């Protein structure tokens, strides 16, 4: 990995705009070849406490800084990310594995949240409320909630960070960020650029650690932390919610998903194949909004499956830095083991293999793009996130059956469907129990729109003007003695 700007490759933790290193480290691996990229600081509870104290100390000055000044710093940060986008994309592909084309897209996507909230921070408006009595005036104002702890996953190591900390910083909050241990390097690179953009000391602090349980417990129970923003599994989300209850922290939880992609008989075939493919196989199927279940109506099933199989089998597997590669490695051996376990259960219960189905010759963490058919709700992959390049296909006959199948899950993050019937589009969109609906489209997330789920997929919104609200409190002011 040859970066044109070597300062982006950091190994320490970032507290008070200083890089701290020490003897306690852990390796960061390239999942494509198993090589160690570098070793980073393995911070513990003591360092996490330092980060919280730094954020707490920086909060008064940062929160009182005019929104225009915060906006200018965020804009400079955005510009630096764009300036170094090629290096950031290479760093992302090297530690996470996704194809370089996707990594470049993620850098742009991640930067867009900083650009968006750099403007949105100047629009955190209050209200004047008509009073029922003549001698008083009522107002509301918006103020930052305080120190925010952001815990982010490995599958989008830039976008998941900027989607959280951009609105937090824009609102006037300070942040302690704990990135995933599999992909800490992008977080450290972003911190370096934030420092160069002029972000004051203590406003953003980054802790890299293998001690997730211990540091997570401190973040959720510390009285100086007022909000937790977490993206990850529903299981861990429940733990963080329980731990946060002692201090009644505000939480934003973006948790597991079990997205259906429904192809109706009247769908545009090419559009349905393209949209399902984009949703299912982006990042080798390792996204929370991936199409986990592909539901195809009976009449269109033969034509759809023929075209879909051709498209899937045409995908190129390999190292993400190689031109033409569309499927990179999975993040680690646990991910491979999970896919194999889910497939075995499905085959034991009657599923049939259409293509793929095994580890790819490119290496131990690569898995062939796979399609299995004759899937049923009794299979484990109908209930659990596959998180890999495997399409599980189900057949249905009626619209009512499709809705019932789609909603038959505890999750409610994203859903997709393909239909040209405008009346049906409205009815189905209203009946699907999900926070995000893609209609004739497989790529649905942008900085301008709200992202978040319902049911066991969590709560809170990221992106859009809703996104900054999760980092603000509404204060009511009553002015009396008006004559």
Automatic annotation (TrEMBL):
GO molecular function: succinate-semialdehyde dehydrogenase (NAD+) activity
Keyword Oxidoreductase: yes
Gene3D superfamilies registered for this protein in UniProt: Aldehyde Dehydrogenase, Chain A, domain 1, Aldehyde Dehydrogenase, Chain A, domain 2
Cross-referenced InterPro entries: Ald_DH/histidinol_DH (IPR016161), Ald_DH_C (IPR016163), Ald_DH_CS_CYS (IPR016160), Ald_DH_CS_GLU (IPR029510), Ald_DH_N (IPR016162), Aldehyde_DH_dom (IPR015590), Aldehyde_DH_NAD(P) (IPR012394), Aldehyde_DH_Superfamily (IPR050740)
UniProt record, GO biological process: aldehyde metabolic process; gamma-aminobutyric acid catabolic process
Keywords: Oxidoreductase
Positions of the catalytic residues: 254, 288
Stored CDD domains: ALDH_F5_SSADH_GabD
Pfam families listed in its UniProt record: Aldedh
Domain Aldehyde dehydrogenase: 21-475
Segments passing through the bilayer: none
Family per record: Belongs to the aldehyde dehydrogenase family.
NCBIfam families, alphabetized: SSADH
Protein name: Aldehyde dehydrogenase
Organism of this sequence: Filimonas lacunae
């Amino acid at each position: 990995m040859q970066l044109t700007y070597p300062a982006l490759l950091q190994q320490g933790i970032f507290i008070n705009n200083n890089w701290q290193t020490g003897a306690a480290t852990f390796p960061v691996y390239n999942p494509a070849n198993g090589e160690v990229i570098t070793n980073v600081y393995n911070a513990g509870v003591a360092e996490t406490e330092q980060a919280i104290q730094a954020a707490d100390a920086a909060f008064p000055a940062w929160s009182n800084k005019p929104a225009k000044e915060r906006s200018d710093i965020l804009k400079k940060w955005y510009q630096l990310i764009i300036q170094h986008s090629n290096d950031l994309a290479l760093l992302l592909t090297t530690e996470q594995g996704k194809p370089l084309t996707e990594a470049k897209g993620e850098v742009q996507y991640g930067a867009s949240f900083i650009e968006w909230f750099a403007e949105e921070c100047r629009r955190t408006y209050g209200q004047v409320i008509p009073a029922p009595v003549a001698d008083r005036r009522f107002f509301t104002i918006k103020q930052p909630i305080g120190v925010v702890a952001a815990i982010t996953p490995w599958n989008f190591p830039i976008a998941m960070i900027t989607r959280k900390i951009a609105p937090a910083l824009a609102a006037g909050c300070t942040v302690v960020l704990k990135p995933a241990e599999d992909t800490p390097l992008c977080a450290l690179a972003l911190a370096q650029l934030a420092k160069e953009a002029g972000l004051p000391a203590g406003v953003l602090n980054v802790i890299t650690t293998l001690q997730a349980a211990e540091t997570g417990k401190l973040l959720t129970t510390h009285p100086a932390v007022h909000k937790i923003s977490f993206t990850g599994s529903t299981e861990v989300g429940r733990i963080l919610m329980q731990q946060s209850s002692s201090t009644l922290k505000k939480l934003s939880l973006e948790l597991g998903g079990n997205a259906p992609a429904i192809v109706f008989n009247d769908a545009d075939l090419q559009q349905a194949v393209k949209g399902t493919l984009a949703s299912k196989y982006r990042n080798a199927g390792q996204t929370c909004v991936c199409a986990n279940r592909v539901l195809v109506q009976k009449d269109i099933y033969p034509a759809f499956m023929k075209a879909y199989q051709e498209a899937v089998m045409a995908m190129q597997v390999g190292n993400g830095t190689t031109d033409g590669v569309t499927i990179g490695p999975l993040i680690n051996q646990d991910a491979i083991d999970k896919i194999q376990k889910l497939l075995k259960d499905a085959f034991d219960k009657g599923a049939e293999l259409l293509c793929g189905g095994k580890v790819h010759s490119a290496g131990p963490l690569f898995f062939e793009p796979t399609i299995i058919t004759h899937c049923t709700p009794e299979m484990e992959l109908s209930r659990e996130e596959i998180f890999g390049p495997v399409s599980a296909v189900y057949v249905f006959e009626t619209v009512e059956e499709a809705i019932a199948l789609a909603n038959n899950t505890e999750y409610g993050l994203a859903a997709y469907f393909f239909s040209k019937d405008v009346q049906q589009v409205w009815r189905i969109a209203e009946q699907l129990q999900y926070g995000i609906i893609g209609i004739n489209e497989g790529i649905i997330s942008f900085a301008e729109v709200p992202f978040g789920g319902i049911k066991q997929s969590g709560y809170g919104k990221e992106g859009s003007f809703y996104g900054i609200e999760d980092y603000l409190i509404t204060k009511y002011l009553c002015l009396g003695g008006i004559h």
